[in-house]
Amino acid sequence: MEITDDKLLRIALITSLIGIIGLIIFTPTIEVKEVEIKDINRGMIDEEVKISCVVQDISQSSSKSSYFLTINDGTGQMPLIIFESQAAEIQSNNFDINDFKDKKVEVVGKITEYNSQLELILSSGDSLKIAS
User: Fold this and answer.
1) What are phi and psi of 77, to 5 degrees?
2) pLDDT tens digits for 53-74?
3) Which of 7, 13, 65, 119 is the S-S candidate for 79 at Cβ 3.0 to 4.6 Å?
4) Could you tell me how far CA 121 lies from the centroid of its own chain?
5) Whose CA is closest to 122, among 109, 112, 106?
6) What's 65's DSSP letter?
7) Are 122 and 86 in contact (CB under 8 A)?
């Protein structure tokens, strides 16, 4: 059997379509892993996680563009960083960042390290929600 350019093109097209259909089917079932702060370690850097916690403290950067929240889930605490674009998105949803203080929230973010300290960077403005 001779493989021609036409046959190779058809095989590539069919394989691509199967892959795209697979992504469409399985993407909604992928969930962010929910963790406790005590379980977060350096091996998890660049992973996206979900934490149910309470916002203990809120401060702003010197430029007033970013926010630094201290979150605590009862097993530990860590900083949550909200950059200007996410803060603007939260405020466009009629929330003020200070409304989250002392509230139980669910947060989705990426674990990073800064100055040898692990921290969580908010994924998007929709990734910080008051838990019901």
Assistant:
1) -135, 155
2) 999 999 998 888 899 999 999 9
3) 119
4) 7
5) 109
6) S
7) yes
Band of residue 1 on the pLDDT scale cut at 50, 70, 90: low
Neighbours of 55 (CB within 10 A): 22
* Dmax (CA) of the chain: 70
Structure tokens at 4: 């021609």
Tokens 């046959």 correspond to what residue? 7
Give the separation between CA 107 and CA 119, rounded to whole angstroms. 13
Phi, psi of 124 (to 5 degrees): -160, 170
Q: Letter for the amino acid at 45? A: I
Looking from the CA of 20 toward its CB, the CA atoms found within 13 Å total: 6
Residue showing tokens 């838990």: 131
Residue where the block lists tokens 């403005």: 125
Cα(119)–Cα(81) distance, integer angstroms: 7
Could you tell me where the DSSP H helices lie in the chain?
5-26, 84-92
Dist. CA 39–CA 31, nearest whole Å: 18
pTM of the model: 0.74
Provide the token pair at 41: 């370690």
92 contact partners, CB below 8 Å, separation of at least 6: 125
